[in-house]
Amino acid sequence: MTHPRLSLALEGAEALPPSGGILVIGPRAGADLPLLDKDRTVVVQGFRPDHDALSAAGWKVVPEPQEAGDGHAAALIFVPRARAAARALVADASRRVVPGGRIWVDGQKTDGIDTIARDVRGRTVISAPIAKAHGKIFSFAAAPVFDDWAAADLFPTPDFVTRPGVFSAEKVDHGSALLAAALPAAMGGAVRRVADLGAGWGWLSAQALARPDIGEMHLIEADHAALGCARRNVTDPRARFHWADATRFNTDQRFDAVISNPPFHAGRAADPALGAAFIGTAARMLAPAGVFCMVANRHLPYEAVLARHFRETVEIGGDGGFKVLRAARPVPAPRPGR
What we know:
By secondary structure, the chain is α/β, with parallel strands linked by helices. It has helices spanning 4-10, 48-56, 83-96, 113-121, 174-186, 203-208, 224-233, 272-285, 302-309, and strands at residues 22-25, 41-44, 60-62, 74-78, 102-108, 130-132, 135-141, 154-157, 160-162, 193-197, 216-221, 239-243, 255-260, 265-266, 269-270, 286-297, 310-318, 322-330. 27% of the residues lie in helices and 28% in strands.
């Protein structure tokens, strides 16, 4: 399906330069990018499922803006919901596009496109926004007037660093804190190999690594930027890092324990299927005597999902808004053809 705003914005004779590289930042899987030549376009997408889908569609995809290079003739930004992250992308694109090159900014009203348009207008001249399909697109000429918008480190808790746009960038997530408090007893005896599904910027893994019996802690995270923060935050030599979609993660070696604070939103909409997929992955990863510890919003119906994948499930902590669940003895996956 053709993107309704992009088609209108880019069909003009001067909308895209006839030569030179095009930088596209933040499109999601299945995004239609009309009039863009794949041979001269570099797409930046650090969320692994979207990265892989765009790559499979034939685009050249890199996970971070710095890997896209400089000297692009134009850029297109799909704004994220976090204002600081959107500003940082504008600043980064302005450094990577040649002076005067057009930078297009597209987004939904619910993701703050009106706010970022107002912010950019406060620094430079923008084109008349095109409004369609509950969103807007506008453009401006690249110029060095956004340097102070560059992404800066955030410090949500002592000795930990995050970046704008990653989950819970400004403070430790309350659910993770509840899960961490329950972990010492919940994981039972010796747990040599442990995985953190959806590890984010690494705080929960760091708390688990306080156990001396852990031999390896595998941090599995789909957000490339968050995993980069985790590498900085978790310097314990027992840590292993995987940029991967947790719902598809596979390993030949079994784990003694899996911990997780799984996401339960796709965009703004609640999607319990995400947490259910994490549960399925955990069951596949665990040894027969392995345990899975997770935290979830209390209203989410994960007990039924856990019962399909584990023989034992018990609530071990939480509060009025969250529940911490421990599942043990994973049910073996059925063999093909049965």
